[in-house]
Amino acid sequence: MDKNFRETEERQGLVAATRRFPMQSLEIRRRVLRDENFRGICADLAAAESALASVDSFPAHLRDERRAEFEGMIESLALEIAQSLK
């Protein structure tokens, strides 16, 4: 994987997690720096949010199903991040 792509993905993950948990932004930054698994979860959150934002461009017969799928993924990833921050 390209280093720039990975750095962009990590930055987007950091932004997504911090936006969801602003009061824990310092701890999120610390964990992103030292925990590859946590970094991956944050990157997955950013990707799921991006996918949800583009769901309106999907064919009409897929929108509702994909919207529910992406929303479920986002909630699951957010829960995983919240549990990790405790």
Describe the protein.
It is globular and about 40 Å long. It is an all-alpha fold. Helix 2 packs across helix 3 (36-53) and helix 3 packs antiparallel against helix 4. The protein contains 4 helices and no strands. The model has no long low-confidence stretch (mean pLDDT 92). The protein has helices spanning 3-20, 25-34, 36-53, 60-85. Helix content is 84%, strand content 0%. The longest helix is centred in the C-terminal third of the chain and has 26 residues, at 60-85.
Supply the key terms.
mainly alpha; 4 helices; globular
Q: Structural class of the secondary structure composition?
A: mainly alpha
Number of strands: 0
Q: Compute the CA-based radius of gyration.
A: 14 Å
Strand content: under 5%
The separation of the N and C termini measures: 31 Å
User: What is the overall number of helices?
Assistant: 4
Described by strand count, sense and barrel closure, the largest sheet is: none
Order of helices and strands: HHHH
**Oligomeric form:** single chain
Low-confidence stretches: none
The helix fraction, in percent, is over 70%
Provide mean pLDDT, rounded. 92
Shape category: globular
